[in-house]
Amino acid sequence: QAAVSALIIFSSLINTWAFGEWDILSTSTPSSIPLTIAICMKLGLAPLHFWMPEVLQGVPLMTGLILSTWQKIAPMSLLIQISQTTNMTLTTTIGIASVLVGGWGGINQTQLRKIMAFSSIGHLGWMLIILKMNPSITLFNFTIYIMMTSALFLTLMTMNVTKISQISTTWPKAPTLAVLSMLSLLSLGGLPPLSGFAPKLMTTLELTKQNALISAGTILLLSLLALFFYIRLTYTMSMTMAPNLTSSQTTWRSKLNKSPMVALTNLLSITILPMTSTIMILL
């Protein structure tokens, strides 16, 4: 991270030397390439993603939530501001690589925090591939991503689970929360009519309009890898139960520390699709 910060400063100095001012909107091509690479590493995009899963695995869920959402706001805002001067080939390559790594890397994971890390990499890849063509869609994708990721992290904190093997106990303890979590996972996978379908639909439509059919087809096929482990998590959460004795089938439910924020974020991550057009007008 320190090296990346130094690279950002170095890019700023190159830009200042070229234009004689510190305005980020006047970014030149020679300075925009190292700046884009530095910001991509800050965001944890492939192939500069190696720090993200390991760091997220080693921190508590609350810190993981901050790393996956709040920490990405500043780099993403910088990336959107320099979107018109970024290199199209660079952003497309990093975007496709991130979708591939985000799907492939999460398949064999058993730790939920690592799965969320690879999920983050995949979603950011979708944002980056459309950045040059339509920054408004990137901003919309990022907003939906924050809602869905926050919903899942808050749910995991409420249930106090960090492994796939632990989420099988979710249904007996809190059936309503399990249903919401299941729908949030499917929303992360991009299935209609949930909120996560809107970013993928709008990104695919824009790529099609720009005649980037190969890029659109590639990321759609690669996103099936991520959809596989989302469905696996959904199956584990809703259709399996932890081993119980016959005498203990009626589950003793401990009182969970429920928060209105958990319900609100889960609701937004599921039902925001009808408001897509209104949100895009505001953006």
UniProtKB/TrEMBL annotation:
GO terms for cellular component: mitochondrial inner membrane. Pfam families: NADH_dehy_S2_C, Proton_antipo_M. Belongs to the complex I subunit 2 family. Residues 227-280 form the NADH dehydrogenase subunit 2 C-terminal domain. Core subunit of the mitochondrial membrane respiratory chain NADH dehydrogenase (Complex I) which catalyzes electron transfer from NADH through the respiratory chain, using ubiquinone as an electron acceptor. Essential for the catalytic activity and assembly of complex I. Its EC number is 7.1.1.2. One of its GO terms (molecular function) is NADH dehydrogenase (ubiquinone) activity. The keyword Cytoplasm does not apply. The chain crosses the membrane at residues 88-108, 139-162, 174-192, 212-231, 261-282. Keywords: Electron transport, Membrane, Mitochondrion, Mitochondrion inner membrane, NAD, Respiratory chain, Translocase, Transmembrane, Transmembrane helix, Transport, Ubiquinone. This is NADH-ubiquinone oxidoreductase chain 2. The keyword Electron transport applies. It is a multi-pass membrane protein. It catalyses: a ubiquinone + NADH + 5 H(+)(in) = a ubiquinol + NAD(+) + 4 H(+)(out). It comes from the Eukaryota.
